[in-house]
Amino acid sequence: RADVVEAKAASGDTVLVRGPGARPVGRALYSGKSQIALRMLTRSDEPADLGLWKARLAAAVRFRDSLAIDADAYRLVHGEGDLLPGLVVDRYTDVLVVQSLVPGVERLLSDLVVMLVELTGARGVLARDDVRVRALEGLDARVEVRAGDVPRELIVREGRIEYEVDVWTGQKTGLFLDQRENRQAARQYAHGRLLDAFSYHGGFALQLAACCERVEAIDVSEEAVARIEVNARRNRVTNLVARAGNVFDELRMMERAGERFDTIVLDPPAFAKNKSAVARALSGYKEINLRALKLLSAGGVLVTCSCSYNLDEATFGQIVYEASVDAGVQVSVVEKRTQSRDHPIVLGMPETYYLKCLILRKLH
Ligand code: SAH
């Protein structure tokens, strides 16, 4: 716990943090308007200058290189997971998409962009500073090119599938990169008739189509559905149909109609975006898991996810268990998974562990 913050700091300053007895405990980025006033950069009084940022960016890039990722779209910098608080960088082939989430990073961004281009040889850098959390930091929303040029449409590859991505307007920075390894893992178990619920641009649907007879994808966004169809054509996937709809209603209707699926993916948006939303979120997660378990054939596979960091792994597991009890079924755990390795989790920092993904088998 920090007792003393350097006096007269301005939002965005790098400050020396002192603990009991005025002993320096490290340097941090200071946010004047945020509930999180300090983001620690160092745990000593070593200088937190641009040299430190450069070394950490280089380490982040080296780590991704060491992962031998079978895709050309992945997260290059994951904030605290790379000791770079408040900075997110996603790579989409030769374009980088950056997000500055705190004033300290916003202030350094021009320098950081030069370093990133030098490290990666990127042809363009887009700032997707239109994320809501920036408002909590007193930062405005905007999208702008920070270096080179950034085309409207990009083609990226993930395993055997290519996606068309619009990094200017797509959700997150264009794709849900954190699910990449879960999409690959699910290939081992997917079979028969597949339902991809909350499908966005069809990440799971497209990756799993080759292992399944028929694929149905549902997303509430018409734009997302149009994109799935484009991506399906691009990859010559012919056993996939996508439709716009609210998954809550669709699951209920399909249950009433007596439909059956052998594989179901549930990848909803974060229902619990803050602590006050947790109670409602729990009933949302329970409802979709209950319906999915009823729609699943015996021996079927459920890939069920939660990306709410306000809901921990144990609670999510409990909710899915309760859904199975209410559905009158038993399930076994095939795999317990989390966000892809390019989104590192920091021990002791529960906020960095946000994505839970259970791959379950319906026993009866
Ligand atoms: N599975 C996707 C990512 C899903 S993100 C992938 O691997 O890329 C969650 C998606 O749920 C978003 O595309 C959003 O448009 C959609 N969504 C949100 N609420 C919904 C609802 N009630 N019914 C259907 N889709 C919904």
Number of beta-strand segments:
18
- Which compounds are bound in this model? S-adenosyl-L-homocysteine
The radius of gyration over CA amounts to: 22 Å
Secondary structural class? alpha/beta
Question: What is the subunit arrangement here?
Answer: single chain
Distance between the termini: 51 Å
Number of helices: 9
Strand order of the largest sheet: 14-13-12-15-16-18-17
Strand content: 25-35%
Morphology: globular
User: SSE string, helix = H, strand = E?
Assistant: EEEEHEEEHEHEEEHEHEHEHEHEHEE
Would you identify the regions where 5 or more consecutive residues have pLDDT less than 50? none
Q: How much helix is in the residues?
A: 25-40%
pLDDT averaged over residues: 96
Query: Sheet with the most strands?
Result: 7 strands, mixed
